[in-house]
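=== RUN LOG ===
request id: a7f3
mode: sequence -> structure
chains: 1
length: 108
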Amino acid sequence: MQAAWHFRPDRSIDPWVSLGGGWKGLWLDPNHGKTTSLQGLDLARVQLGVDYRVSPDVSISPVVGGSLGMFVSQDSPMTNGYTEIGSKKVNFTGFAGLAGRFDVGGKR
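=== RESULT ===
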């Protein structure tokens, strides 16, 4: 789930901020052996971006953000299927990148 606030939604340059949370997964695939899979929760995710409108329905946005998350189960070479992680810890992940937005429906 994510909620976003657009400061200038009717302009070609539209700064925005979002807050959300949800499920997260991490897969580590070694050259040999079994893949390690971690499943968990994004407890809080904050993103900042600026939409640059390419057309009324398409925009490109540089994005920076961070999330607080917690992995709760794992499947690794040491387990047979998913098992609960005993010592759960909150971790921080920072990220930056480019996002594409495609607006479908709605009214301007």
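=== NOTES ===
Residues 73 and 84 are 4 Å apart (CA to CA).
The radius of gyration is 18 Å.
=== END ===
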